Each structure stands twice: as structure tokens, then as C-alpha cells.
Amino acid sequence: MAIFKLAALDGSIELVVRARCLTCARAVAVEHAGTEGTRVWRDPNLSSVELVRETDKTALILRAERK
């Protein structure tokens, strides 16, 4: 499955989700919506979706920090 970055256009929240497609990524965001509500993820005028990585791998390091 691919990795998508979803962002509210007002800058209030960003999500990184794993989903099969762009529409599926929005559905994941809707299912896990918090205080921002579901409308922001359903409406393309209120949020953006960006494909970060398309992969068939079952594992992925989302973030690593070296100190």
C-alpha cells in the first residue's frame, strides 16, 4: 500500500496514512478524525492529499533521527 500525507489547508493538522489509493487515504482520515471533525478530510477544498511513496513492502520506517 502507498503512503499519503494529508493536510488541512488552514495548517491546523497533518496526517500520514497508509492506504491503497487517494480516496482510500481520505477514508482512513475520516475514520480516525479527531476534534477537527470529518468534513475537513471529506472536502478537497479544505484539505490536500499527497502521495509520499508507493510501495508493496509490508514494512517502512516512517521517521528516524540520528543524534
Structure description:
The chain has a three-stranded antiparallel sheet with strand order 2-1-3. The radius of gyration is 13 Å and the shape is globular. 21% of the residues lie in helices and 30% in strands. The chain is α+β, with helices and mostly antiparallel strands. The longest helix is centred in the middle third of the chain and has 10 residues, at 22-31. It has helices spanning 22-31, 39-42; strands spanning 2-8, 14-19, 47-53. The model has no long low-confidence stretch (mean pLDDT 87).
Q: Name the beta content range.
A: 25-35%
Low-confidence stretches: none
Radius of gyration: 13 Å
Distance between the termini: 30 Å
- Note the quaternary state here: single chain
Major β-sheet strand ordering: 2-1-3
Spell out the helices and strands N to C. EEHHE
What distinguishing features does this structure have?
single chain, 67 residues, alpha+beta, 30% strand, 21% helix, three-stranded antiparallel β-sheet
Helix/strand layout:
Layout: E1 2-8, E2 14-19, H1 22-31, H2 39-42, E3 47-53
Antiparallel strand pairs: 1-2, 1-3
Summarize the structure.
This protein is α+β, with helices and mostly antiparallel strands and 67 residues long.
